[in-house]
Amino acid sequence: MSYSRPPGLPIVDAMTPPVLVLAGPATRDEVRGLGDDVRALLHGSGARVVVCDVGGWGLGPPGLAAVDLLAKLQLAARRAGGRIRLRDPDPALRALLDLVGLRFEVEGEVEEREPALGVEEAVEPGDPAV
Predict the structure, then answer these.
(1) Over the stretch 87-115, which tens digit does the pLDDT of each residue have?
(2) 42-45 contacts: CB < 8 A, separation 24 or more?
């Protein structure tokens, strides 16, 4: 049996992560339900990331309730084999997350282990070639 390649470019299916919109303060029961939603989005889509849109969050200044919610969502995602990524977080929320030691991937940021585009490492004279 032989296989001939079809003409043209190969078909690529781009994977767009599912989005969970967080639109305000959540009660304890709602937090549990949001954790279930994160797990369902991960399992239903086959994706490894769920984007949590926190841009329209009507909380006012972020507090520990927001930190607690995001930590629980991250834990639910990790237990399901994935993670969450934040979309459009308030700078005060990011500062609070840093203060309590929680690191979240933020949509549109360059990952720490990858150099930013257009940045080249300097080579000192006398450095051996790699």
Answers:
(1) 989 888 999 999 999 999 998 775 555 55
(2) 42/18, 42/77, 42/80, 42/81, 42/82, 43/80, 44/18, 45/17, 45/18
